[in-house]
Amino acid sequence: MSRKKKAVVLLSGGLDSATTLAIAIKDGFEPCVMSFNYGQRHAVELQSAHRVADSMHVSRRIEVEIDLRKIGGSALTDSIEVPKDRLIGEISHEIPVTYVPARNTIFLSYALGWAEVLGSSDIYIGVNAVDFSGYPDCRPEFIEAFERLANLATKAAVEHHTITIHTPLINLTKADIILTGIELGVDYSLTSSCYDPVSEGLACGRCDSCILRLRGFSQAGVQDPARYAKRV
C-alpha cells in the first residue's frame, strides 16, 4: 500500500491540467484524479484525460457527471457560437462567452468533498492568470478565497487538517508551462485544448484556447503535437 500523501488533481485533459498532474507527482503525492463530464461541447477532452492519466500511471480516478447545460449561459454548454480567429489582445480584454458560470467553484467543491473522504489535505488545479481567457475563477484572489472557505466549511479543517489549494501554473506563461511539462515528460500529443473540435476530434485551430496554445508552443520553440484542422 502506498505511503505517499494523497492529492486530488483536477484533470480536464488539456495542456494545463496535464502539466499540473505531472507536477503533483513530482511533488511526491499519490494523485487522485477527478474529471468532469458537465455537458461540455468539447467532451472529447475526457478521452484525453483518460489517456493522460494512463500515461502517468494514475490508478485512482473518478469522472463526475454534472449537466451544466441545464444552466447554460456559456458557449461551451449552450447554443452560443464559440468565438473564432480573435487577436490575442481581444482574448484577454473581457470575459468571453466561453466562460462557464461558477465552473471552478463547482469543480473545487467536488474536489474538496473527495479530499475529505480520502483523508487528503491537498488539491491541485491548473488555473493560470497570465496566458488565459480572462476567466474570473482563474485569478489568485478566487483561489485564496476558496481556500479560506475550504478551511471553514469542512470537518477536516475543524479537526485541524489544513486544506491547501495548489496552483503551480498560476503565474507562468503558456510557454513556461509547456517547457515545464516537457521537462517532466508530459506527452502533449495526448492532450486536447480546443473549445470546438471538428470531425474526428481535430482541434479547430481558431478558438481562443487553440490560439493561446499555439502561441505558447511557438514561444517555447517547440512543435505542438496536437492534430489541427487548421493552424493559425
Let me know the average pLDDT. 93
Counting structural domains, the number is 1
Give the CA-based shape: globular
Biggest sheet record: 5 strands, parallel
Please mark out the parts with pLDDT under 50 across 5 or more consecutive residues, or reply none: none
Order of helices and strands: EHEHEHHEHHEHH
Radius of gyration: 17 Å
Let me know the CATH homologous superfamily.
Answer: HUPs
Share in helix: 25-40%
Highest-level CATH class: Alpha Beta
Features:
5 strands, 8 helices, 232 residues, single chain, Rossmann fold, 37% helix, alpha/beta, five-stranded parallel beta sheet
In short:
By secondary structure, the chain is of the alpha/beta class. The chain has eight helices and five strands.
Task: Describe this structure as you would to a colleague.
This protein is of the alpha/beta class. The protein has a single domain (6-83, 99-192), classed as HUPs (Rossmann fold), CATH 3.40.50.620. 37% of the residues lie in helices and 11% in strands. A 5-stranded parallel sheet has the order 3-2-1-4-5, sandwiched between helices. Strand 1, helix 1 (15-26) and strand 2 (30-37) form a beta-alpha-beta unit. The relative contact order is 0.18.
